[in-house]
């Protein structure tokens, strides 16, 4: 009987070592949906809300452009052009305020997440720069559009249309950048879970 005890101890140790080695070779498993952290879910909901808001903004700018074109086609309908000018002012005011907030959030994210991987840091800095450039472009357009409010000459109306088209283009560009940034954020969140 005495010889069995060392043998069973050696067998138990070998089994433990084999199980430990096998566990080390396994790939990490993807977390279950209920294991996703609450801050990640909050960030995903916030991203989705921002995307909806940006799509809504672009659609509204496209409607303003259509109304502008219709007013011009009807022999420069002064009342409709004035309505378009007023709506454009409201949209620009809201866009600039939203841009300031997004620029501030991008800077805060850069500061908050500094020290993560170099790639994530570069992405955050790049996102902050893109947001700042977008905000600068909107301010420039807003200033020029403001100088054209109420203008009715053919050249002024043509320039106003070009600026509205540029705002639509900026909005669509921001949507594309948002999708790219959100893909990067999802990847970062997934990487942090492991």
List keywords for this structure.
elongated, Trichohyalin, single chain, mainly alpha, signal, 85% helix, 194 residues
User: What is the element string, with H for helices and E for strands?
Assistant: HHHHH
Major β-sheet, in short?
Answer: none
Question: What would the principal axes of the Cα set say about the shape?
Answer: elongated
What's the average pLDDT?
80
Taking the alpha carbons of the first and last residues, their distance comes to 48 Å
Strand % is: under 5%
Question: Structurally, how many domains make up the residues?
Answer: 1
- Stretches where pLDDT is under 50 for at least 5 consecutive residues are none
The helix count comes to 5
The beta-strand count equals 0
Compute the CA-based radius of gyration.
28 Å
Helix share, percent: over 70%
- Structural category is mainly alpha
């Amino acid at each position: 009987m005495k010889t069995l005890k060392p043998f069973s101890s050696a067998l138990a140790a070998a089994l433990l070592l084999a199980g430990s080695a096998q566990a080390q070779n396994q790939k990490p498993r993807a977390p279950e949906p209920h294991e996703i952290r609450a801050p990640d879910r909050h960030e995903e909901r916030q991203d989705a809300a921002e995307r909806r808001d940006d799509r809504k903004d672009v659609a509204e700018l496209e409607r303003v452009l259509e109304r502008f074109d219709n007013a011009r086609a009807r022999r420069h309908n002064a009342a409709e052009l004035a309505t378009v000018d007023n709506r454009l002012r409201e949209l620009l005011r809201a866009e600039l305020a939203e841009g300031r907030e997004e620029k501030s959030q991008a800077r805060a994210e850069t500061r908050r997440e500094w020290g993560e991987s170099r790639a994530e840091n570069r992405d955050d800095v790049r996102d902050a720069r893109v947001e700042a450039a977008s905000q600068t472009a909107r301010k420039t357009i807003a200033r020029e559009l403001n100088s054209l409010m109420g203008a009715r000459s053919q050249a002024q109306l043509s320039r106003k249309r070009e600026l509205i088209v540029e705002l639509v283009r900026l909005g669509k560009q921001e949507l594309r950048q948002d999708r790219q940034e959100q893909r990067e954020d999802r990847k970062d969140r997934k990487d942090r879970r492991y």
